[in-house]
Design goal:
The structure is a homodimer. By secondary structure, chain A is mainly alpha-helical. The first copy, chain A, has 2 domains: 8-152, no CATH class; 153-498, Neurolysin, domain 3 (Orthogonal Bundle), CATH 1.10.1370. Helices cover 63% and strands 3% of the residues of chain A. The first copy, chain A, has helices at 8-35, 42-60, 64-72, 76-79, 82-99, 103-125, 133-154, 158-166, 172-197, 209-223, 258-276, 293-307, 311-325, 334-341, 358-374, 382-394, 420-439, 443-448, 453-462, 472-480, 487-497, and strands at residues 230-234, 240-243, 246-251. A 3-stranded mixed beta sheet of chain A has the order 1-3-2, with helices on both faces. In chain A, a hairpin with a 2-residue loop joins strand 2 and strand 3. In chain A, helix 1 packs antiparallel against helix 2 (42-60) and helix 3 (64-72) packs antiparallel against helix 5. Chain A is globular. The N and C termini of chain A lie far apart (59 Å). The interface between A and B is medium-sized, with 33 and 33 residues.
């Protein structure tokens, strides 16, 4: 870079690292909101988060950025280094995204979604969707405006622009094609699975929350969650927040069913390990961030679905579960446990769904959110459209809106275009894991004895340490020698359930 | 203000409310640091806090501020309204403070103190002062530089400038004079108290932390802590953080002695009630903030020392303590409890000191910090100077540095000039409470039956709701019809201990 005046690229690095500090602050304040904050602080907190968002946005749209980017793109040292070039490309991407929306708009969106999230908490508790129609309508209106603005700037369709917030380059067409492939085999897999596994016993009984939490922590430690850089807490909806040095995962407890909190913890641990493994050299820089949500979700599902329902993992944990709960679980054997963990049963709640029925939940949300964004479905008609969709796809009907369209926070927090990444993540998880265990045959036997190092090492090299130096689709192809498809997922489901 | 272009004053209000949001964010991140944060996140958190501090500072020193302040000071509507005028005066004060120091300096101070605070945690654990000499020397150097810069800008002595950070208008001369008045009667009160109360029994035994916490929460509720806008948690050093809508108080537990966590909770509740009572109309504005630390500390000590060791309060809580711990405390009577709570005994730990010996701890710190700031005491000589001072003032010697100069976080976090406000707060608490119970004779009888409303109402009118619309000294004089002195405190101690 020479010794004289710092390069434009270097100034950009400095500016982006300062933006990252503000975003990390927001991440902790958001975690606090969901886990610790007294309810009376919600209004003040919404204003704080909106202000921090505004600061990041103002910095991205600073008039000097345009020239800095243009000049940095001419700097020869930058173009000759893959990481620097990717970092700069990500900077330009963020800058374009930020310029597509005014500061005022961003602030108003943040305030509106915070208010709606808060109202959602109480509407969900009283299972009453009509309570939040005003707040939710305001959110939908703003998200539609946002999609239109982005569409004008980027020349993509409004809904594609929403998808791009969570996964660059992903299009409706990709989603339609993959979901249509899924619907080719998923109904028959589901029929088979219900025949095979439908009569599996489930655990009924009392599982003290303290004992569940101890078990969760023990398994997190075995998998490799770094407690010196992270925490496990409780919230309404499990999530993974914070940042690479300060992983904040949450779960929720059901004292009738320990598998609910347990599986959520395994899922969020997968997310957290991805964050933890991001390249330290690039901390605070765009290229050092996680790739979009498809890869993020692939990392959580790889742990939760591929690894933690495997024969090897179930053998590993069965004694821990016996020890944690004792009583009638003292006789628990691996086959019983695996039957329960791999139970397939259509249900109303997405986060409790098994891996066979889960994609149906996503397909429903994908269809409905496209209709909401296109203006073809009115907010007040959402509950009935939801019920109808559930009947069509899974032949069941939610007892109330809490088990229906109020179950997920996403839309109420303004997140449209997010849901499809869950199922694309499941496809990616299957494809990555099947490649991993072929390329390193030591992975599964090591898991059996509680050694996750071979797996984490493979993930580190092929996923975590890459940051977003290449696209999700390239990463998958590079790691698995094939483009993303439904093939590995289908093979995996047929092996496990048919 | 007219209908056209918004006034300069209005623009200032907007700017200061945005600064307040950033500071509120910092307050929660600092609370999280002390209560929740995994240790591996410390470096990242220090950078986040430094960045937020930098943002506030940059906004205060924005070149446009100078003109805005000058123009607002000419606006007739502002000068004719006491609150607007006070708000504007506070804005100018903050602006002058900020301009006395460069952004770069402020950032470096924040990073250095964060690093030193972290090192302090481990040094204190291993009772090894020499571990943190490098970090602490760096902090002292920066604080001395800061004092000199402030001194140049404000024309006050460097140490007075440090005092002003915590209490505007307070001077070394005030402190010297009040501390010299104290030393006139305090040694003889101490002698008497040791004769009278020295043989009081103390509680020995096991007090489960869960039971202590339940008791603490119950008493907080009786006093009027608004749990819908606040929390109680655990930290190394008890503190009151967060903000008016999001009160975050902490305590620490000793399972051999419930009075330690209990009294810390009462103290922090006093701070929190002050914040909670600040004028809502002025939220986010300088005039709506708490006055300096003398008044803040007066509010915690008024609850902890004046109210909660009174005969009336002890009668109120004795049954709750019996119920909380049972066992050998089932026979506890009011006199026994009061004897323990009012026990006087010279000890090494400031936060555990009784109200008679507490001022000696402060006088020691006041003397030592003046020497450190004047450069007359070297950092490496602090432990021996500390031991010597303790011998002179209280005739005891700490067993190690953890019980000596490592016990308090203040200096290691860069807070010099803070300690004197504790004892000035104790004087103010005595003076305010003695005025309150004279002016409203209902206060003490109501406390006896668990009704804190009359007390809180008096405090609201005379202290809380005033924000910093007038100076600490004026507030005290207005509420008590006399300037701040040691008289009420002396009278109070003689009544209770002689």
């Amino acid at each position: 870079m020479g010794m004289g005046k710092p390069s434009s690229y270097a100034e950009l690095e400095d500016r982006f690292s300062r933006i990252a500090l503000v975003r990390e602050s927001s991440a902790i304040l958001s975690w606090d909101w969901a886990t610790m904050m007294p309810v009376g602080a919600a209004k003040a907190r919404a204003a704080q988060l909106a202000e921090l968002e505004k600061i990041s946005h103002e910095r991205l749209v600073d008039p000097k950025m345009k020239d800095l980017l243009a000049r940095a793109e001419q700097e020869p040292d930058v173009q000759s280094d893959m990481w620097l070039a990717s970092n700069l490309a990500q900077m330009r991407q963020q800058w374009m995204n930020a310029n597509a929306l005014s500061s005022k708009f961003v602030e108003s969106l943040a305030t509106t979604t915070s208010a709606c999230e808060l109202a959602w908490r109480s509407a969900r508790e009283s299972a009453n969707f009509s309570e939040i129609i005003p707040q939710f309508s305001a959110v939908v209106d703003l998200v539609r405006q946002k999609a239109l603005s982005l569409s004008e700037s980027f020349g993509a369709s409004p809904y594609d622009c929403l998808l791009h917030q969570y996964e660059q380059n992903l299009t409706e067409r990709d989603v339609d094609s993959l979901f249509s492939d899924l619907l080719e085999f998923l109904p028959s897999v589901l029929c088979n699975a219900l025949d095979e596994h439908g009569r599996s016993s489930s655990f009924k009984g009392r599982f003290p929350i303290g004992a569940q939490e101890l078990l969760n922590r023990k398994i997190m430690e075995i998998i490799g969650f770094p407690f010196e850089s992270g925490r496990l807490d409780t919230s309404h909806h499990p999530f993974s927040g914070g940042g690479p040095e300060d992983l904040r995962i949450t779960t929720r407890y059901d004292d009738q069913d320990f598998t609910s909190s347990f599986m959520a913890v395994l899922h969020e641990t997968g997310h957290a390990l991805y964050e933890y493994g991001l390249p330290e050299r690039w901390r605070g820089q765009p290229v050092g961030e996680a790739l979009g949500m498809v890869i993020h979700e692939s990392q959580s599902l790889l742990i939760e679905m591929q690894v933690c329902r495997s024969k090897e993992f179930v053998e590993l944990i069965t004694p821990h579960i016996r020890e944690a709960f004792g009583g009638r679980l003292l006789d628990l054997d691996e086959d019983q446990l695996r039957a329960v963990l791999c139970k397939v049963e259509p249900g109303c709640i997405r986060v409790e769904a098994d891996e066979v029925t889960y994609p149906f939940h996503i397909i429903l949300r994908y269809r409905l959110e496209r209709l909401l964004i296109d203006g073809e479905l009115k907010v007040e008609d959402l509950p009935s459209a939801w019920r109808e969709g559930m009947r069509e796809l899974l032949d069941i009907e939610p007892a109330d809106d809490a088990a229906g369209c109020l179950q997920d926070i996403h839309w109420y927090g303004g997140d449209f275009g997010y849901f499809p990444t869950y199922t694309l993540g499941a496809l990616a998880a299957a494809q990555l894991f099947s490649a991993a265990v072929v390329k390193n045959t030591d992975i599964l036997p090591s898991i059996r004895v509680g050694n996750f190092k071979p797996l984490l090492q493979w993930l580190d090299v092929n996923v975590h340490s890459l940051g977003c130096s290449l696209s999700a689709f390239s990463l998958i192809e590079r790691a698995t020698d094939a483009p993303l498809s439904t093939k590995s997922f289908e093979k995996h489901l047929r092996a496990r359930y048919c």
